[in-house]
């Protein structure tokens, strides 16, 4: 990958401290097409994970709600997921505390020019690329033996412990979610999980969006669909900013206290033969407050082939996607050239 024209030691957080005019590189929209940060709120179904696991009538109703929400907007708000409010606060805090450190200390975790992992800002792949108004910490958390621990913050002191615990808890949740996704389509419970394999990968990304002088001209994160199988997004507790595209219209995703936003990624769209949708979303900025979100991307090990479940291919619904190996590799390659991998995967 050709990197980087801009140094990672030029974070948006620093830029924001002394910035009255938005630098040219961050202008996403010209003023004739300003970004509306105040789109209407979308009603995203809230799913009770605990009741999904029971074998009662309430589980059937919840599965039906799950299927309906994933086929219409591609996401749901998970509650009763087994993590307490104070634990989720700790996950947010390790991110916020890290970004508050002096630059010198943050640079201990800085990503290498050719790497995605570590602390940095939007990687630059071309001179004409419009940059996102965000800094991030991006770390592979699973499998454990592939972690690059030298890039994990030593400060705050509990960073590693909390991120490890969060990873373990999300593994459990992800298993329950993948089973529920299969069951909601009347497939064998293990159908998606079998494709997913034992050595699944998880990557955590702490997204830090400093206040921005012109939220109408720039984006925290450009529109994209996730290349994962599933993404778990812990939103900021107080500051909204996530928007989702539905029927060609942008909507604001509301904050549901203590819920995790569960998002279908491209790989589950493929496995479900397009029944579940991987939603296009973006993050907007605001002029007053820092926003922090924590996204955890779960995906099958890159050596595995993923494909639409055979049971979902019928005469009326023919196979819509090719078999894909290393979807994520293709995703990043395409992303940097502004191309969509899911479109390329379509037959
Ligand atoms: O900050 C957000 O709410 C969105 C994050 C996101 O979409 C991502 O990290 O892929
Ligand atoms: Fe995303």
UniProtKB/TrEMBL annotation:
Keyword Signal assigned: no
GO MF annotation terms: metal ion binding; oxidoreductase activity, acting on paired donors, with incorporation or reduction of molecular oxygen
Pfam families, per database record: 2OG-FeII_Oxy, DIOX_N
UniProt keyword annotation of Lipid metabolism present: no
InterPro entries: DIOX_N, IPNS-like_FE2OG_OXY, IPNS-like_sf, Oxoglu/Fe-dep_dioxygenase_dom, Plant_2OG-oxidoreductases
SUPFAM superfamilies the record matches: Clavaminate synthase-like
Highest taxon of source: Eukaryota
Keywords noted in UniProt: Iron, Metal-binding, Oxidoreductase
Domain Fe2OG dioxygenase: 199-300
Family affiliation: Belongs to the iron/ascorbate-dependent oxidoreductase family.
Protein name in UniProt: Fe2OG dioxygenase domain-containing protein
Naturally occurring in which organism (per UniProt): Daucus carota subsp. sativus
């Amino acid at each position: 990958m050709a990197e980087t024209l801009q140094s990672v030691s030029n974070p948006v957080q620093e830029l924001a401290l002394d910035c009255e005019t938005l630098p040219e590189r961050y202008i996403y929209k010209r003023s004739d097409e300003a970004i509306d940060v105040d789109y209407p709120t979308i009603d995203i179904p809230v799913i009770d994970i605990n009741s999904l696991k029971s074998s009662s009538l309430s589980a059937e109703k919840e599965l039906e709600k799950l299927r309906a929400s994933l086929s219409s907007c591609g996401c749901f708000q998970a509650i009763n997921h087994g993590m307490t409010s104070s634990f989720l606060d700790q996950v947010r805090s390790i991110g916020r505390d890290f970004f508050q450190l002096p630059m010198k200390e943050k640079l201990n975790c800085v990503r290498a020019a050719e790497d995605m992992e570590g602390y940095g800002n939007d990687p630059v792949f071309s001179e004409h690329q419009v940059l996102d108004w965000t800094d991030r910490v991006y770390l592979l958390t699973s499998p454990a033996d592939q972690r690059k621990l030298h890039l994990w913050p030593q400060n705050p002191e509990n960073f590693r412990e909390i991120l490890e615990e969060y990873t373990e808890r999300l593994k459990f949740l992800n298993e329950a979610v993948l089973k529920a996704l299969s069951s909601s389509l009347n497939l064998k419970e293990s159908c998606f999980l079998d494709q997913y394999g034992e050595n699944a990968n998880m990557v955590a990304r702490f997204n830090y969006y400093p206040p921005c002088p012109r939220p109408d001209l720039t984006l925290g994160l450009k529109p994209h669909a996730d290349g994962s199988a599933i993404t778990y997004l812990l939103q900021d507790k107080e500051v909204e900013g996530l928007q989702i595209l539905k029927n060609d219209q942008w909507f604001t995703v509301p904050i549901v206290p203590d819920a995790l936003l569960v998002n279908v990624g491209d790989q589950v769209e493929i496995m479900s033969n397009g029944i579940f949708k991987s939603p296009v979303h973006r993050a907007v900025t605001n002029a007053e407050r820092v926003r922090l979100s924590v996204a955890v991307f779960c995906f099958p090990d890159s050596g595995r082939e993923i494909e639409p479940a055979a049971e979902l291919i019928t005469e009326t619904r023919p196979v819509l996607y090719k078999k894909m190996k290393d979807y994520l590799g293709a995703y990043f390659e395409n992303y940097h050239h502004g191309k969509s991998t899911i479109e390329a995967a379509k037959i």
